[in-house]
Amino acid sequence: MQGTVSEFDPGTGAGAVLLDDGKRLDFPATAFAASGLRLLRVGQRVRLEPAPDGTVARVALVTMH
Questions:
Q1: CATH superfamily of 2-61
Q2: pLDDT tens, 12-52?
Q3: What does the domain layout of the chain look like in residue ranges?
Q4: Which SUPFAM superfamilies match (predicted)?
Q5: What's this model's pTM, rounded to 2 decimal places?
Q6: Which of 4, 7, 43 lies closest to 28 in space, CA to CA?
């Protein structure tokens, strides 16, 4: 699933995304840490990879192929 970063705390690595359907989804610092990214900006498009328990396992940048 994809969305737009609506909040990001660089100190903790936690944040939130507004999904394309308008719902807000929080992501934990562990999902940001798994991304390998150093920073996210508000307004940036990201792809969220779900964990088996339904939480966010990883945040990734949306790339064009």
A1: Nucleic acid-binding proteins (2.40.50.140)
A2: 999 999 999 999 999 999 999 999 899 999 999 999 999 99
A3: 2-61
A4: Nucleic acid-binding proteins
A5: 0.87
A6: 7
